[in-house]
Amino acid sequence: MWRDTERCYRAVMSRDARFDGQFILAVRTTGIYCRPSCPAMTPKERNVQFFPTSAAAQANGYRACRRCLPDAVPGSPDWNVRADLAARAMRLIAEGVVEREGVTGLANRLGYSERQLGRVLSAELGAGPLALARAHRAHSARLLIELSELPLTDVAFAAGFASVRQFNNTIREVFGTTPSQLRVTAAGKRGRPAPAPRADGAGVQSHANDTALISEGSAPTAAEDTTSASPASSIAASPARASSAVSSDGTSSRSVSSGASADASYFGTASSAAASSRTGATAAPAAVVPAGVSPVAPASAGTLLDLRLPVREPFDADGLFSFLAARAVPGVEVADHELGTFWRTLRLPHGSGVVRLTPSNGHVRCELRLTDVRDLGTAVARVRRMLDLDADPAAVRSVLETDPAVAPLVAATPGIRVPGAIDGPELLIRAMLGQQVSVAAARTAAGALAAAIGERTLAAVDGEPDVLFPTPAAIAEHGPRLLRGPRRRMAAIVGAAEAMATGTLDVHVGRDADDLRAELLDTPGIGPWTADYVLMRLLGNPDVLMADDLVVRKGAVALGVDGSDLAGHAERWRPWRSYASMYLWRAGGTSPAPPQRTATVTARGESKAATTSSDRH
Question: Is the pTM here over 0.85, yes or no?
């Protein structure tokens, strides 16, 4: 859209918030870039320039507007709508791949050379992979600067910067101020004093209780293995470098404030966030024990952040959270129907985490506890994808409401979302466990598997989920002993787990949809339904028609659509057939399904028969 300057300028003149995150407005006379709905005086058309990303604006010498916070918006829906190289790269950059593996790792995951990748991203997005990753780091750093009490030297490495100097220079160039001044300004907005610092030069200030200032050359580069011993890894390991805060009302560590002030920033797709830092304990290394070991009272709750994730409205939070709640795996996920919240554990590159999500007005409250703050950007990117927060509901509605068959559903439930996935391998295993059985049976089987071989985290609060879903390697090793059911299906699950554990099958958000689908279909035990389900939920592909799904067909018939010609009728729903499938699932959800006998796995590996239906949704 950013190439259509007339349309972009009309959106700017109308201050239409629907376009926030879809393009960037830069003003030549001020050197500032803004969101389209910025409340400042509209600049003259001859003085503006449009960019597809904030990284492109930064690469052209612009800095972020402090009034409208242009990166504090929902991300662009293009990264899901588009299936090209640029979109796949943006998904992986948001996941923090460049910080962990460098541009070489990003290119390898995408199957292109570094040079070719750089050319494509520069042409499509106005910036190369390093500039895009730099924007990602800058806004992750801003979150930690403003909303945690981590020493600024630790913030630099936690956000993925290779040196203190690089951190200082980037913050100055992007935000037009120093890291210490950002913290002071944010503390003033929240009505509390900033921690008293001592100056250590170069704009970075460390606090009086720091043990030492991390030297500029001692951090790993983006391409190095950040899991090795390094100053960055010491962020999680050293209690002296922990984030420490208490809730504003002085209650227990789980009694948190209601969020940030109205003018605080939000955390968009790997961008800035509105949050208040809170702890009642000291950060420590990732605390994970085998699931078979009795839980121990935690000595640490890790770093705790209370964030607000912006969302494009309308937002069907009830439907989305009901979908997740119905499939909540015991131990891994917890749905609180009374409070309307959803908790789950997170397996992250540097440790583990727990997230508690609560829908609110215009945003989703995200209470996040991390054992290693380097995982912040990755965790938020995955949560945003799980909740489909970057979707464009207006675009979906404009297409689907033209079909009289589904128009009443669209009008009755605006802003429907396609639930995403936190982890690719987990999604595939759970989808295979759910083949030909009910949602309840699949949930029971997944929960028993997690209880038997999942790693246990140290929960900070009673009722909080404390089990990480098992890794493919663990399922491949123990699956033959634990899984129960049809022999061929159990063998297929173990085979898929082995393929993912060895790297033969790579299931992640940066995959090309056609290539991933072909590889899935070549895997024994995986048919079109499972492959399409993974594409829809993992890649966020908005145009997947679940035509072979029993409940989708029931829903189509209930709406007067010929089930035998569903694919033909669905052509009018392009490119939003995934969202249409969600509406059809709703329409067919109450229809009865023929019962069948299946067997589910128990935590001790015992066979347990259960009467279920072929209704998978």
Answer: no
